[in-house]
Design brief:
Strand content: 5-15%
Distance between the termini: 45 Å
Number of strands: 4
Radius of gyration: 20 Å
Structural class: alpha+beta
Length: 233
């Protein structure tokens, strides 16, 4: 808690995660279950506070903090790394209604904390629609991603890319670099000092607000047809 009783990320959270990364096994975890429960309670309070902040400026799905915060237990069925626990805390706030696409993600880990948002693996129809918009309106995309505030805060758009032009699109298109994307998201990293600051909840909230121009544009694209007519009216 900070001086205003706002839940913050505590130093003990980082200490626990560092210890867990060195002892990522069930015996150690069970012996320190009380520490885990204390940190989990703090992270739930942090997520609940962030929900309140974000609902003041965007429509967020009616989810509890428990649904926002991801479990620390890993699914190792298809992973070569069989360590049973994540060494980070993370959560996701999904935008509400069919007309508002996208979601806000945060990741808390010593030396690797960040926030991000976008479209990580869009389904085939959405991917096609995004590429059609890039093909037709690439100057708008350049303007959106080249905006000084967006570029200075997030840098370049991220996401996996094809090695060549996607099927049905001209490899000589002036925005072929954008057309090759398979995922579309923005990310901003935080230092440990920023995360542990009592001002971090507001810092994270402002960072999420910086995603809005990107989300709003993508929402318009993904909820309209090629003629700009709404798909939901």
């Amino acid at each position: 808690m900070n001086k205003n009783n706002t839940p913050t990320i505590k130093k003990s959270t980082f200490i626990f995660l560092k210890d867990l990364s060195r002892h990522n096994n069930r015996d150690w975890f069970n012996k320190h279950k009380d520490r885990f429960l204390a940190e989990q309670e703090n992270m739930l309070a942090f997520a609940e506070n962030m929900l309140e902040k974000m609902r003041a400026h965007d429509q967020i799905e009616n989810a509890s903090a428990k649904k926002v915060l991801f479990r620390i237990y890993k699914d190792v069925r298809f992973s070569k790394d069989k360590s049973p626990y994540k060494t980070s805390w993370s959560g996701y706030f999904r935008r509400a209604t069919k007309l508002k696409r996208g979601g806000y993600y945060f990741h808390i880990e010593p030396g690797n904390s960040y926030m991000s948002g976008g479209f990580y693996g869009p389904e085939a129809d959405d991917l096609k629609r995004i590429r059609q918009d890039i093909e037709r309106n690439y100057k708008d995309w350049r303007k959106l991603l080249g905006n000084a505030k967006t570029k200075n805060f997030f840098g370049k758009m991220r996401g996996n890319q094809l090695l060549t032009a996607p099927k049905g699109f001209d490899k000589e298109h002036p925005a072929i670099d954008l057309l090759r994307y398979k995922s579309f998201y923005l990310r901003h990293n935080f230092t440990d000092k920023e995360v542990l600051s009592e001002n971090f909840p507001e810092t994270l909230n402002k960072a999420f607000k910086n995603l809005r121009p990107f989300f709003n544009y993508m929402s318009d694209v993904l909820t309209t047809d090629l003629n700009g007519e709404s798909l939901y009216e």
